[in-house]
Amino acid sequence: MVCHYNESVKFFYDISKKNISGMWQTKDYVVVSLGLLVCVFVIFANILVMLAIFMNRRFHYPIYYLLGNLAAADLFAGISYMYLMFHTGPWTIKLSINQWFVRQGLIDTSLTASVINLMAIALERHQTIFTMQLHSKMTNHRVVLLIIGIWLIAILLGLVPSLGWSCICNTSECSNMAPLYCRSYLVFWAVLNLLTFTIMMAVYTRIFIYVLRKNHRMSQHTSQVKQKETVVNLMKTMVMILGCFVVCWTPGLVLLLLDGLCESCDVLTYEKFFLVLAECNSFMNPIIYSYRDKDMRDTFKRILCFPCLGWQQTEEHSGVRFNTLKQERRRRVLQESWVARKARDGDGEQANRGQLVLKEAENMLDSTES
Fold first, then answer.
1. Count of beta carbons in the 10 Å neighbourhood of residue 369
2. DSSP assignment, residue 90?
3. What is the mean pLDDT of residues 305-332?
4. How many CB atoms are closer than 10 A to CB 252?
5. For position 349, what pLDDT does the model report?
6. How confident is the model at residue 332 (pLDDT cuts 50, 70, 90)?
7. Which end of the chain is more exposed for a tag (fewer CB within 10 A), N or C?
8. Which ranges of 93-182 would DSSP assign to H, the alpha helix?
9. What is the pLDDT of residue 316?
10. CA 198 from centroid of its chain's CA atoms
């Protein structure tokens, strides 16, 4: 077995019959320019999401920390694609084997982080909704450990090809789309991610069936109806995020699967289109947040208006209230007290009276501490 560590990247591209131009053409300029423009938007949008979650105390819950980590994965994807744009086209021919592995490894890591993070979100929603809670009781320490674990797994899977699962020592196994990757690795990668998508869709389907069955059994008290609507709305947002991810990434993964299983299939014709589609997913999540979550949308406005109007002036005109931790704790105490009172008093007039007491207490809290 002969290994080709001293060969250039062009050597492997010639074997896979994937053409790389040595001169810049109009198509190359257009692809790189549009790619860089999308990358800038991806980076900006996801930094905005992370800032919003950091600044607004109402988002300091496990589900939003995981959404923030998903934004971090999309931010990393934007940086990875920007690196790709500066190392693609005629620049590809100048890459060393290690530089090529870095380029591909960054993209693989960002995708893996997004997929595992979406799985963690699905499991978190499953646990909370089956107990009819809005937020998980997972501690911040566990959330941090979970996020660290997500990135460690993502980095490890991103390094797998450069650690040996490549075709450098077996050129007959080189793929067409990624000429230094083995076909067997592409099959493994595509099947693993498609299987993960299937599991996530099964989890969300089970959650929706449970919520639909639970809805008609729930009491019609104002607080419970509001909680039910909040849970359902958050679920819809999660499903939109998952659906968008599946739509954007599945075609590319199917193409990778075909490249690994079918040597005669023409996968290079659609490669660029599906790559752009996958890149677009990284800026879709902030758009979904803006459309589905009013608190998130208002927080975005406040952050964007801050350089022009200043923090205090923005607070006066935006109508967005950023509760302190003290306020949030006192509000939760009030809510728990009312739930306990309702449990003792039962339904009917006493429960309604308890709701009015809670509302008056919240109004007093807002007027004294806002």
1. 11
2. G
3. 50
4. 23
5. 46
6. low
7. N
8. 97-129, 140-159
9. 42
10. 17
Which ranges of 130-182 does DSSP label H, i.e. alpha helix?
A: 140-159
Neighbouring residues of 203: CB distance < 8 A, sequence distance ≥ 6: 122, 123, 125, 126
Single-letter amino acid, residue 226: K
Q: Are 354 and 338 in contact (CB under 8 A)?
A: yes
For the chain, the residue count is: 370
Q: Are 171 and 12 in contact (CB under 8 A)?
A: yes
Token pair 């002036």 is at which residue? 313
Buried b / exposed e across 335-367, counting CB within 10 Å, b at 16+?
A: eeebeebbeeeeeeeebeebbeebeebbeebee
User: From its phi and psi, is residue 319 left (phi > 0), alpha (psi between -120 and 50) or beta?
Assistant: left
pLDDT per residue as tens digits for the range 219-278: 555 555 555 666 667 667 777 878 888 888 888 888 888 888 887 788 888 787 887 788
Q: How many CB atoms lie within 10 A of CB 101?
A: 21
Token representation of residue 61: 């819950």
Q: How does 22-38 read in b/e, with b if 16+ C-beta sit within 10 Å?
A: eeeeeeeeebbeebeeb
Give how far the C-alpha of residue 156 lies from the chain's centroid of Cα atoms, to the nearest Å. 19
262 residue type, one letter: C
Query: Which segment, 24-28, 230-234, 309-313, is predicted with the most confidence on average?
Result: 24-28
CA distance 81 to 277: 12
Q: How far is CA 360 from CA 103, 197, 325, 331, 338, in A?
A: 58, 46, 20, 12, 12
What's the per-residue H, E or C state across 184-203? HHHHHHHHHHHHHHHHHHHH
The answer to whether the beta carbons of residues 23 and 91 sit under 8 Å apart is no
The whole-model pTM stands at 0.76
Q: Among 33-42, 318-327, 339-348, which range has the highest average pLDDT?
A: 33-42
Residue 79 confidence (pLDDT) above 90:
yes
Q: Going by C-beta distance under 8 Å and a sequence separation of 6 or more, which residues neighbour residue 271?
A: 177, 255
CA 242 remoteness from chain centre: 8
Give dist(CA 307, CA 310) in Å, integer: 6
